[in-house]
Amino acid sequence: MAAQNDFSIPIPENKPIDEGFDYSQRGQWLRAAVLGANDGLVSVASLMMGIGAIKHDVKAMILTGFAGLVAGACSMAIGEFVSVSSQLDIEVSQMKRNVVSNEESEVKKMPNPMQAAAASAVAFTFGAIVPLLAASFIVNHKVRLVVVVAAVTFALAVFGWLGAFLGRTHVVKSCLRVLVGGWMAMAITFGLTKLIGSSGL
Questions:
Q1: 10 in helix, strand or coil?
Q2: Any stretches that span the bilayer, and where are they (predicted)?
Q3: To 10 degrees, what angle do helices 171-198 and 23-54 make?
């Protein structure tokens, strides 16, 4: 029963004065979007740096990056679809068990496998486009590699900041995490491909 004030106006009970936004709910789609964009950016850039370590041809570099974009987007979409579908099956089964045992189950929005798959594929594609565009108009091989690294560095910093901003987490830590990871991936791919290429394999 609602409480009464001096003017006989009902006052709802147990209602918090300040209802803050639940950022954990946002984290579900944010995780997929940030993961997809970072994966597209780092994996395609690393592929292009790897082929750039042994070939100076811009066409080879672009084709490698494009193949990585298509393959990666498909892989992300399929993986996210399978993962979220499994999660959906588990939650539906649990709801059915709750109904059978006459337990009260909280009504919540169920995960959408198709939506998650599409979001991951689109995010991956957006990330992968960055190194492709950066390399497309640079003729000189060394300059092209430098421009790709610079463009990827900037994009990684933006993605790190965006993820921290939307999730209300530490900006510097988020940016450093994605930057160091991206640099390591490109450096390792470039170095190992260069080593294998120089050995005549």
A1: strand
A2: 32-54, 60-78, 116-139, 145-166, 178-197
A3: 20
- According to DSSP, the residues that pair with 4 across neighbouring strands are 10
pLDDT at residue 31 in the model: 65
Rg (C-alpha) for the chain, rounded Å, is 24
Distance CA 96, CA 163 (A): 35
Q: To 10 degrees, what angle do helices 23-54 and 141-167 make?
A: 170
Give the pLDDT score at 103: 57
pLDDT in tens, 129-164: 999 999 998 989 999 999 999 999 999 998 888 777
134, 151 contact by CB (below 8 A): yes
The set of residues, in sequence order, having a beta carbon less than 8 Å from that of 174 and lying 6+ positions away, is 160, 161, 163, 164
Of all residues in the chain, the percent with pLDDT exceeding 70 is: 78
Domain range list for the chain:
27-190
Among 65, 63, 54, smallest CA distance to 199 is for 54
Per-residue pLDDT at 171: 82
- Dig out the tokens for 164 from the structure: 């921290």
- Collapsing DSSP states into helix, strand and coil, what is residue 3? strand
8 or 145, greater pLDDT: 145
Residues with Cβ within 8 Å of 46's Cβ and at least 6 positions away in sequence, in order, are: 185, 186, 188, 189, 190
Mapping DSSP to helix (H, G, I), strand (E, B) and coil, where does residue 121 land? helix
